[in-house]
Amino acid sequence: MEKDMEYYIQVSGRIMKDNLDKRKSLTKKICDWYLDQDKEDICLIASGSSLNAAYAARPFLLKYSKFDISVLSTVEYLDVYREREKNRFTILISQSGCSTNIIEIMRGLNKEHQPFVLLTGNENGSASRYTDHLVEYGVGNETIDYVTLGYSTLIEFLMLMILEIGFQKREISDQEYETAVSQIRNACEMQELCLMQAKELVQKRYQDLLCMGKAILVGDGANLATVREGALKFQETLKVPTVYYESEEFIHGPDMQLTPDYSVFFIDCGKTSDRLYDIYKATLLITEHCYMITDQVHDKRDGQIWIPCRLPAEITPLYTAALFQYIAAHVTKEKNNFTCHPLFSRMEQAVSPKTEDYDRIMKEKLERSRREENG
Predict the structure, then answer these.
(1) In CATH, 5-172 is 3.40.50.1970
(2) Is 29 a residue whose pLDDT tops 80?
(3) Alpha helices of 122-255 — where are they, by DSSP H?
């Protein structure tokens, strides 16, 4: 199978299970660094899909820690919260290892002699020159620009990291630890099931999805980050204007723009009431282009993905992104729509988010991946 977006979505469940099995060795370096210093609170700094993954993981991190964990975009950190975060254990995240904004922060922290850790999917990226504390978080050789595997494995890595820290500090009991590990394993299985159903849904609603022109994505709690990531994927691949909301925010004004040509997606997993499902049914009164991932037993309708496993809400982001990832990957490929407008190259040259050597580094990463496959 060609190593495109679909490939990396397809292998995500398996790789997350592999990472779960080797969780202690995978997280050892970062856990040791954390436990060796006197800072307790953690600050996660990222952008793009990495930021969305950190947001998605945060409810789980807070549940299994006795300290505070902040998640900041690079702009928030640099422009607003820099001084406040100085006494936290700082983790910077760049899957490519070539993010110019992350490198700017690294330079500043080095100048101030402030310690930090870099989480990355590319140990040979440009950012590796600015730190001795680098961790590859288990994504391996994802060699495309549109992050999918890296998003899911990053969420899982952060969850596993906080479990290992809590377990080693004896703040998490043996039973709590084993229960959380079992739930993560179940979520890996649900990722594969969600992907299988996403493929079926795309075939059933193929024409609707090919013609999708405007989209709204709705999710709550940890899955607000999932719909944020889904909106990013739809915009960068399908080039479809997409916004995301919490369920109650959606019906407090944004729903007034709805017309029958809108596509609206809902995540109804880990919920304790029928409120979001009621909002979904009300939206159907305006547009039939409604889709839902749910783990509740409702009146099943066309356009739904049903997850037969009720997991805590903070676990569900490990699988709920699969629908948006697959639609972005498959429909964009079917429409041959990955290419941006010709003028986009001018904008990218003027304000590139990646270092100048990014193309060379990614080419070398692809070549290493091929060599590893060929033995």
Answers:
(1) no
(2) yes
(3) 149-168, 174-204, 206-210, 223-233, 247-250
